[in-house]
Design brief:
single chain, 358 residues, mainly alpha, 12 helices, 2% strand, transmembrane
Length: 358
């Protein structure tokens, strides 16, 4: 029998002539395994293995031990590839960098309050309340003199209402919208003086309808974004409506204006006192009813003045709350915060005055 090996037979390597294993080329317990540059070469050969497509099975070294697994992101000489993190248990993709921490002190007051879980509402305070009381006193005193005397403080109220509403909605400068709302208020005043108190609903509602259509036409001609046009249209309509409805002081009976304007002024002053919210609201309503009783006795309304004062006080507190929305600026406090309580009380003064026979 021939001592030649069969064709295709590969003699087992001589264990006495093996080259010693290079230390450090692969350590299964190491956190970052390193491969020796000649790790893929046969001990008796100097030619590297041909590159083959990995099919899920680890290639063999010829000694019964598989080659070390390919580590993504790792170079043969131990250089890390950026973007790939490695560990002893395997490989993983590095997590994206964390977002930088937000400096809370640089945020606006309303956003900081929301992050801290606090209410973003700041009330106008005592100084705007004092101005509201002065303007309410002027309305009450001028109503006792006559309609033409009442027009002077009423025009001031309407101008401040128009400017304050646009600024309250974050739209500044908005000269066209402010001028449009103020012009509608002046038109309603002139219509009331011309038609008389008996035709007050037609004069006020007619002017309001015309100004809504006018604001709609002006916004349709605008070249702004559709969302901005809609937002501007709503602000213009609301500002014009509040300014025109403030003419209800001119449409109401003089005694009703005296009682209602004074009650609204007293309610806002009481609301500005440093008390808890619920307590200050109760105190403000009681003060408005008390002012209504006091002035009702002097004007001949008697006990019905308490109802009128209470209604005007409720509307004034609603206007006061609207002007406190979402950390408004100081300008908002001294415009909308001053005018909205009296403007919101005008419809109650007119309707309750007629219902109570003033």
């Amino acid at each position: 029998m021939s001592n030649q090996p069969y064709e295709g037979y590969e003699a087992a390597p001589d264990p006495y002539h093996q080259q010693p294993q290079q230390q450090g080329w692969y350590d299964p317990n190491a956190a970052y395994p390193q491969r020796h540059p000649n790790a893929y070469q046969h001990p008796h050969q100097h030619q590297p293995y041909p590159q083959q497509q990995w099919d899920g099975q680890a290639p063999s070294t010829g000694y019964g031990q598989p080659l070390p697994p390919e580590v993504p992101g790792y170079e043969p000489h131990g250089h890390l590839v950026p973007g790939v993190a490695q560990g002893g248990a395997g490989t993983r993709t590095a997590a994206p960098p964390a977002a930088p921490a937000v400096d809370v002190s640089r945020l606006p007051a309303n956003q900081r309050a929301r992050l801290e879980g606090r209410s973003p509402v700041i009330e106008p305070g005592l100084q705007p309340a004092a101005l509201t009381a002065v303007l309410g006193a002027l309305l009450a005193g001028a109503a006792a003199v006559g309609s033409y005397a009442l027009v002077v403080p009423l025009v001031v109220l309407q101008a401040v209402t128009a400017a304050g509403w646009f600024r309250l909605n974050g739209m500044w400068p908005a000269r066209q919208g402010i001028a449009l709302a103020f012009l509608g208020a002046l038109t309603a005043d002139v219509a009331l003086l011309a038609a008389g108190r008996e035709h007050a609903p037609a004069a006020i509602l007619g002017t309001l309808g015309v100004w809504v259509l006018l604001a709609l036409v002006l916004q349709l001609r605008s070249h702004a974004d559709p969302d901005e046009r809609m937002y501007g249209l709503m602000a213009a309509v609301a500002s014009a409506a509040l300014s025109i409805l403030a003419a209800g002081h001119l449409a109401a009976a003089p005694d009703a204006v005296t009682v209602g304007a004074a009650a609204a002024a007293v309610a806002v002053l009481a609301r500005a006192l440093p008390l808890p919210t619920a307590a200050s609201v109760v105190v403000a309503l009681l003060a408005a009813a008390g002012a209504g009783i006091a002035l009702g006795n002097t004007t001949g309304m008697d006990a019905s003045g308490a109802v009128l004062g209470l209604g005007a006080g409720v509307c004034a507190l609603i206007g006061h709350r609207v002007a406190s929305y979402d950390y408004p600026s100081r300008f908002v406090h001294f415009t909308a915060g001053v005018a909205l309580p009296l403007a919101a009380a005008a419809p109650a003064v007119y309707l309750l005055g007629r219902a109570l026979g003033a």
